[in-house]
């Protein structure tokens, strides 16, 4: 199967080709470039599957350098490479699957609805898939940064797709600027990593996580840590990179762009939330986990921010009126769980939740898209109701996704979220910070159950509250097919790693754990475990089966409680706006804790004033100096010009005088007249 | 750059001294080196023949074609010899010398001649005296080529006059144009004065050394002269420097230049400011490096004199160019400024310098300049052909009507300013490096400051062409083939010189090293 890896570049190249086709030839094609994108991402999906089995059979990662930018090794190398290991093979599969389904869904959502500008849409979607696939395959941090930025650009282009309205361009700019703010730190981090280690490779003997570990172990000397203690310096570097992660993965306080990004077309939202942009951040942490494992401080910050975000976003999701807004906050919250898992050392748990979330969140967004089409592009849940009988395919798939999101056994979300919480609990038993993070995440489960089922009940149950909801618009196979595929997956994908069952029965069914136990040196979960134990004092904790089951039961209980509360309040023929009873709390929640307001205040009150000062300095002193120099030059030039009088006798005089001056000067210096 | 520093093997002076003592060589093989001159001479004769058979003909195409073909043949011969490499050969008892430097400059002269003959096809149109026009151009080119081969003051003076006299007539070619005639007259008067200074300088040097051959003069000076004659020799040297400065249009011998360049037909302006200027420089290189080696004539610090000239020339040229209103006159002053840059090649010949590198940098700049400056003046010729006016404002919006020509012009102008649209950036960089190596920091700073200033007035033209809106009555009639071809060729060569400088710097660098 060695031949499989030769085709690895094609996984990313295919969507790029379809990007070019859609951009330049899209307007001449029957579906405006959709088929090019479907073919390309379908091809990527097949190749990714092949890659997956290649990794499965060989067990070894594939690492190759495709292009070197500058052929020097000192002080560092810049290159493009491909790294296919267990993690990236899994992620490639997820990304290409979701991309493919989103393309198919777009046929119904965009083409059938008669949208204009479709070549631009499909070009953007293809470029988005290309960027993300290339990001996943990146063999080093520098390349990852390049494609990370490209992912950001694509999200800007797609969120602002309907640029003629007011809100989308504004949302696109906000997404771009907020994530860019995080990326400044990331960029500094990349430069720092390159400057420190001379390489930014993720894997291999000379990779920077390996070098960093050797430095801590005292095996390698000569690494410049800029005067810091090595571990402190590595923490700083890790936190800098984390800046980019928090922007892209919408972690507190850089999450504000994400709800606004709902202005984009719904399939784009599905792609952004499930597989591409938001996933990129968490993936990056997993990608360089060998580096983060060396820094207990960075891990603690990741875990705490994750736990906090999980709860914080979930509370805001409770009061939203629009179906996509609820999903937006659920995304922020769910990525919080992943961060929490990675922070507490649950590498497999984090990636597991990333996988299941990709599936059920894509499903929920596409389901929401279907509902929005059915409702003639009205997103307000209070105008829906009773869609269950009129849109059965959408209802049952959406329900599967909701059960997964809420974490109800046996749907996929239960297994992964349970493992996240279990890992957090294990770590929390000897560290109060982690316990606090665990507690917040657990509380978040309740809110998740509540807002998820509030959404389901308001949308699908009860009596139709508007005439549109009584007779919704029907749609074709191209929207139902992705829903069904994802609905099935959302139900069953959790079975790849049923830890509680494994504990109870002793059966070896933790396939994901087994999967990550193979792989290249320094890329396996055992290696990460060893690193955590040695450098972050994450000792081995032996949890009994009882604890495993108890943890699962508690989280299930919280989820059911939330769902039950929603059932009581909203699963009635004509529900009231119970959240109104929250009074001023609702206002705070509805305004997202005034996050936007304080960030705008920071930008306008503080940054703009500093910028004005800089502008005054630039205009007055720098430009003033430049202007006066040019003024002096021009007036000198004007005088010089006047030497040319036009009178030839003047010329002869000046010429002779000049010669005499020159003669005298050289003569005096040469001592001719002594 | 590494090439520049590794291939230098200074040949000793004695080799060429002994060569000059050989008997007169008149074998056929020895004419190989002056074959370009012979071809140009035959071209001139052919032009005369055509003109005397059809004295009233205005068959511009035939005359222009003959000139282009003749100069191209000479160009190819030169290029071949340059590529295959030549031994330094002396002819006619050492009156002439054929070496890589002479070939290098002949290459510049023949290229420029071909370009302007091509461009003149439409510019001259159906004016009178066409035979004379092309013949004078070719004769001037012969004079310049001969100047590049001169190895004695006698041949140098004669070929200087051979290059100059046709130029006076050519500047005044537009007989019914007051500016043209006046400029020709002034050019002639200043030229006569400068020639007198030059001849007087030669006589003083002859008086002290007893020889006119460059190599013999150098040998005598190396042996040492009577200390009381240093002053006489010094005055001679500085006066010769004056004669050279006239030809290179360096301050204070530059007064003819702005008016001659502006009054002359634009192709002639191109010819004078590119080829004729290069001829002045090859003369300067020969005389000052071969005949007056700096270490042999203590007490006559001509390096310092050139430093002063370089600084004053580049500053005056660029500052005056900054406030001009017409494009042609701006280019005229910028041409003076560029003479200042090339003078660095002589002004930086201090003890600290990698001397042949500095010299080669100057030669490379002249090569690049030969194309970019010719091209820029030819664009002005195009504008004059269309009759759209002379000021910057008259060029407004021209790019909408003639994008190709304007793109070419932008290449020329940015390359002149030293931006990497053409070889101008690299050659200026070489000069800067040479100046820094020679520890002539004043010159280096002058080069940078003046280049920065020059970007201002060059980009004024670019801005007018591309950004400003055209005047409502801007119309252009036709796209003259010859002029366009010449401009495009010049633009392509200017652009290609940027990557190709690595190749071309080799002959240039060997040529420079041959004199040491």
TrEMBL record, chain A:
One term under GO cellular component: membrane
Single GO BP term: ATP synthesis coupled electron transport
Alphabetical keyword list: Membrane, Oxidoreductase, Transmembrane, Transmembrane helix
Span of domain NADH:quinone oxidoreductase/Mrp antiporter transmembrane: 138-435
Domain NADH-Ubiquinone oxidoreductase (complex I) chain 5 N-terminal: start-end pairs: 73-122
Main location: membrane
Transmembrane domains' residue ranges: 6-26, 33-53, 87-109, 121-138, 144-163, 184-203, 231-247, 268-286, 298-319, 326-352, 358-375, 395-415, 435-460, 481-502, 546-570, 651-673
Pfam families assigned: Proton_antipo_M, Proton_antipo_N
Glycosyltransferase among keywords: no
GO molecular function, one term: NADH dehydrogenase (ubiquinone) activity
EC number of the protein: 1.6.5.3
Membrane topology: Multi-pass membrane protein
Protein name from the UniProt record: NADH-quinone oxidoreductase subunit L
Organism: Halocatena pleomorpha
């Amino acid at each position: 199967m060695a031949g499989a890896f030769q085709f690895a570049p094609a996984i990313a190249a295919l969507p790029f080709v379809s990007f070019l086709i859609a951009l330049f030839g899209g307007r001449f094609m029957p579906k405006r470039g959709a088929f090019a994108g479907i073919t390309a991402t379908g091809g990527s999906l097949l190749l990714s599957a092949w890659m997956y089995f290649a990794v499965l059979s060989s067990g070894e990662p594939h690492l190759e350098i495709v292009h070197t930018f500058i052929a020097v090794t000192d002080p560092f190398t810049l290159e493009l490479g491909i790294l296919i290991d267990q993690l990236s093979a899994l992620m490639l599969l997820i990304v290409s699957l979701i991309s493919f389904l989103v393309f198919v869904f777009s046929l119904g959502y965009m083409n059938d609805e008669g949208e204009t500008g479709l070549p631009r849409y499909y070009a953007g979607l293809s470029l988005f898939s290309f960027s993300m696939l290339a990001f996943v395959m990146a063999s080093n941090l520098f390349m990852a940064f390049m494609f990370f930025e490209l992912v950001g650009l694509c999200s800007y282009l797609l969120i602002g797709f309907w640029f003629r309205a007011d809100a989308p361009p504004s949302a696109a700019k906000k997404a771009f600027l907020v994530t860019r703010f995080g990326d400044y730190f990331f960029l500094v981090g990349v430069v720092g990593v390159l400057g420190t280690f001379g390489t930014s490779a993720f894997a291999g003997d000379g990779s920077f996580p390996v070098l960093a570990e050797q430095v801590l172990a005292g095996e390698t000397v000569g690494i410049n840590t800029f005067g810091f203690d090595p571990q402190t310096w590595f923490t700083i570097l890790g936190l800098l990179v984390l800046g980019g992660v928090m922007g892209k993965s919408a972690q507190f306080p850089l999450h504000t762009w994400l709800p606004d990004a709902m202005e984009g077309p719904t399939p784009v939202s599905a792609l952004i939330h499930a597989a591409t942009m938001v996933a990129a951040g968490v993936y990056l942490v997993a990608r360089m986990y060998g580096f983060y494992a060396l820094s207990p401080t960075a891990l603690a910050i990741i875990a705490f921010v994750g736990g906090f975000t999980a709860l914080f976003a979930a509370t805001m999701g409770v009061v939203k009126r629009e179906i996509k807004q609820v999903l937006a906050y659920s995304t922020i919250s769910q990525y919080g769980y992943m961060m929490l898992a990675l922070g507490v050392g649950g590498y497999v748990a984090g990636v597991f939740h990333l996988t299941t979330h990709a599936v059920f969140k894509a499903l929920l967004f596409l389901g929401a898209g279907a509902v929005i089409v059915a409702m003639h592009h009205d997103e307000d849940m209070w105008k829906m109701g009773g869609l269950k009988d009129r849109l059965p395919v959408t209802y049952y798939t959406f329900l599967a996704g909701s059960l997964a999101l809420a974490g109800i056994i046996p749907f996929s979300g239960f297994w992964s979220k349970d493992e996240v919480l279990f890992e957090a609990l294990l770590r929390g038993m000897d560290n109060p910070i982690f316990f606090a993070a665990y507690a917040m995440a657990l509380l978040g489960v309740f809110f998740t159950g509540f807002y998820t089922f509030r959404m389901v009940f308001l949308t699908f149950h009860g009596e139709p509250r508007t005439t549109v909801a009584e007779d919704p618009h029907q749609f074709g196979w191209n929207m139902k097919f992705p829903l069904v595929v994802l609905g099935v997956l959302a139900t069953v994908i959790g079975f790849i790693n049923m830890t509680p069952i494994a504990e109870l029965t002793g059966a070896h069914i933790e396939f994901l754990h087994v999967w990550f136990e193979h792989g290249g040196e320094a890329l396996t979960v055992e290696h990460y475990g060893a690193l955590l134990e040695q450098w972050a004092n994450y000792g081995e904790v032996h949890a009994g089966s009882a604890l495993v089951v108890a943890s699962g039961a508690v989280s299930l209980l919280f989820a059911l409680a939330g769902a039950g509360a929603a059932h009581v309040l909203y699963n009635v023929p004509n529900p009231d706006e119970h959240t109104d009873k929250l009074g001023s709390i609702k206002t705070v929640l509805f305004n997202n804790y005034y996050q936007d307001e304080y960030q705008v205040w920071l930008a306008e009150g503080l940054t703009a004033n500093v910028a004005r000062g800089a502008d005054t300095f630039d205009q007055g002193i720098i430009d003033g100096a430049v202007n006066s120099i040019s003024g002096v030059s021009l007036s000198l030039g004007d005088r010089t010009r006047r030497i040319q009088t036009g009178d030839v006798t003047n010329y002869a005089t000046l010429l002779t005088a000049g010669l005499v001056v020159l003669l005298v000067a050289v003569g005096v210096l040469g001592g001719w007249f002594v | 750059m590494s090439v520049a520093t590794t291939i230098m093997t200074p040949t000793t002076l004695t080799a060429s001294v002994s060569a000059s003592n050989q008997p007169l060589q008149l074998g056929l093989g020895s004419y190989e080196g002056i074959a370009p001159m012979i071809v140009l001479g035959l071209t001139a004769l052919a032009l005369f023949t055509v003109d005397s058979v059809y004295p009233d003909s205005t068959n511009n195409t035939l005359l222009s074609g003959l000139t282009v073909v003749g100069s191209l043949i000479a160009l190819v011969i030169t290029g071949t010899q340059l590529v295959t490499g030549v031994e330094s050969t002396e002819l006619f008892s050492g009156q002439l010398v054929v070496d890589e430097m002479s070939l290098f400059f002949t290459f510049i002269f023949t290229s420029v001649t071909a370009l302007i003959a091509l461009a003149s096809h439409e510019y001259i149109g159906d004016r009178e005296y066409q035979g004379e026009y092309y013949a004078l151009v070719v004769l001037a080119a012969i004079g310049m080529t001969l100047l590049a081969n001169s190895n004695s003051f006698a041949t140098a003076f004669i070929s200087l006059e051979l290059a100059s006299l046709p130029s006076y007539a050519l500047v005044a070619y537009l007989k019914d144009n007051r500016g043209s005639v006046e400029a020709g007259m002034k050019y002639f008067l200043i030229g006569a004065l400068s020639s007198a200074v030059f001849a007087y300088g030669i006589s003083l040097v002859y008086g002290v050394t007893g020889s006119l051959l460059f190599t013999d003069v150098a040998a005598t000076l190396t042996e040492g002269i009577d200390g009381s004659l240093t002053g006489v020799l010094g005055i001679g040297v500085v006066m010769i420097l004056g004669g050279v400065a006239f030809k290179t249009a360096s301050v204070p011998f530059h007064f003819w230049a702005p008016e001659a360049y502006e009054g002359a037909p634009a192709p002639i302006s191109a010819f004078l400011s590119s080829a004729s200027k290069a001829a002045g420089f090859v003369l300067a290189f020969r005389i000052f490096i071969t005949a007056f080696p700096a270490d042999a004539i203590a007490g006559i610090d001509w390096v310092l004199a050139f430093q002063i000239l370089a600084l004053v020339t580049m500053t005056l040229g660029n500052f005056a160019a900054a406030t001009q209103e017409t494009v042609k006159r701006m280019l005229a002053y910028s041409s003076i400024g560029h003479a200042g840059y090339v003078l660095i090649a002589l002004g930086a010949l201090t003890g600290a310098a990698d001397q042949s590198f500095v010299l080669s940098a100057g030669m490379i700049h002249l090569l690049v300049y030969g194309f970019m400056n010719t091209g820029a003046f030819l664009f002005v010729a195009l504008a004059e052909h269309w009759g759209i006016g002379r000021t910057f404002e008259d060029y407004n919006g021209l790019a909408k009507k003639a994008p190709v020509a304007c793109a070419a012009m932008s290449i020329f102008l940015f390359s002149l300013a030293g931006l990497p649209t053409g070889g101008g950036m690299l050659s200026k960089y070489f000069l800067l490096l040479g100046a820094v190596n020679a520890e002539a920091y004043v010159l280096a700073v002058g080069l940078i400051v003046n280049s920065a200033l020059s970007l201002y007035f060059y980009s004024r033209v670019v801005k007018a062409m591309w950004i400003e809106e055209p005047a409502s009555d801007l119309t252009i009639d036709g796209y003259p083939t010859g002029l366009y071809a010449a401009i495009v060729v010049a633009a392509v060569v200017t652009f290609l010189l940027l990557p190709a400088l690595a190749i071309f710097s080799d002959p240039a660098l060997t040529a420079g090293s041959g004199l040491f």
